[in-house]
Amino acid sequence: MSSKGATLSLQYPQFANPNYENWAIRMKAILGSQGLWEIVQKGFDQPQNEESLNQAQKEALEKERKKDQCALTFLHQGLDDDMFEKVANETNCKQVWDTLQNYIMGVEKVK
Q: PANTHER family, from UniProt (predicted)?
């Protein structure tokens, strides 16, 4: 990422169970700094019939898809191999976040 010639290199925190709470706080900050936290939190609606959308709606949908894929990439970068395998089949960032959260909450209930 660059702004006026400055380069910022992000270091992704690695999620290796049991550090979920710390990892989640750090990832929320990273995603928020990139304007991506809202899409992780709320997701986006995939229209049933894209052909019926006007040009402005299609452009907005494409923008949301790009944000989702960017957030998905950030999340994948922050997972160790074991955690990545748990979410590898999820197709959007909200699904990944929710799956990780549910997995950890389930583990905590068992304890």
A: OS04G0629600 PROTEIN (PTHR35317), ZINC FINGER, CCHC-TYPE, RIBONUCLEASE H-LIKE DOMAIN, GAG-PRE-INTEGRASE DOMAIN PROTEIN-RELATED (PTHR35317:SF28)
Three-class SS of residue 44? coil
77 found inside a domain: yes
Residue 102: which residues within 8 A CB-CB, separation 6 or more?
Answer: none
In a domain, 32, yes or no: no
Closest-CA residue to 93 (of 57, 42, 59): 42
Handedness of CA 51, 56, 57, 58 (dihedral sign): positive
* Residue 14 covered by a domain: no
pTM for this prediction: 0.81
* Residue range 20-50, pLDDT digits in tens: 889 999 999 999 999 999 999 999 888 888 8
- 66: containing domain: 54-111
Name the DSSP letter for residue 80: -
